[in-house]
Amino acid sequence: xxxxxxxxxxxxxxxxxxxxxxxxxxxxVFMLRAQSKHTRFKSCQYIAxxxxxxxxxxxxxxxxxxxxxxxxxxxxxIPKPAPEKQEALAEAA
Length: 93
What we know:
Elements: H1 10-37, H2 71-77, H3 83-92
């Protein structure tokens, strides 16, 4: 018998609720990532300061076509490949 006649154990219910909350958050992150892969931005999306529901917290500088950050913030947010990877990429080109 999985549950008592009085109902499920409170610890089990709490565990299921925590798992459901984690899965909801992971799904939200996944959906945002999937959406951002297909979105073309014309202005820098770097959040400068306290995040807000409107775009007032974003940098707003122009981006290269298909980019998400301006040149300045791209350097901060996107790490450069390790030197050995850079060499391998150069050789492959």
